[in-house]
Amino acid sequence: MIGHLNLILRLAIWFLLTANLSVANIIIGIAVALLLPGRPKTPEALKDWLRVLGEVIVAIPQAYREAFEIIFRPHSHEDVTMERVKAGRTPGLIFLDIFLITFTPKTIVLKYHEDGWYEVHWVRRRKKA
């Protein structure tokens, strides 16, 4: 059985993909969310989910700011870095972390390594020497 927060995340993704809130689609979405395989239930702290959702809210204005920076001051330097996954992350929280990194225009997660690392591509302004 999956956790309640993972079920809500799966349903939210379903509704975003289908853009349909009809009764039939809700029933199908619940069935799909319950039938998708998952890992054994892990304890998830509500405070971790609330913190990540707060970070999502903060990321929205940051994404607009970065988009305008790229438009008005083009960035020509690229880096690929490895970032550590925060300790004790469940698969749902790891998904939200990847979403946060990829949501902003200057960064994208290229790969998630099972040993606890994200490979992140950055677009930056070249620093003057």
Short overview:
The chain is an alpha+beta fold.
Rg estimate, integer Å: 18 Å
According to DSSP, the number of beta strands is 3
Oligomer: single chain
The total of helices stands at 4
Helix-strand makeup class: alpha+beta
Helix content: 40-55%
Task: State the order of secondary-structure elements, H for helix, E for strand.
Answer: HHHEHEE
What percent strand?
15-25%
Topology:
Elements: H1 4-18, H2 23-35, H3 46-72, E1 77-84, H4 91-103, E2 107-113, E3 117-124
Antiparallel strand pairs: 1-3, 2-3
Fold and architecture overview:
This protein has 129 residues and is an alpha+beta fold. The protein is built from four helices and three strands, in the order H-H-H-E-H-E-E. The protein has a three-stranded antiparallel beta sheet, covered by helices on one side. Helix 1 (4-18) packs across helix 2 (23-35). The N and C termini lie far apart (56 Å). The mean pLDDT is 83.
What are the salient characteristics of this protein?
129 residues; three-stranded antiparallel beta sheet; 3 strands; 4 helices; alpha+beta
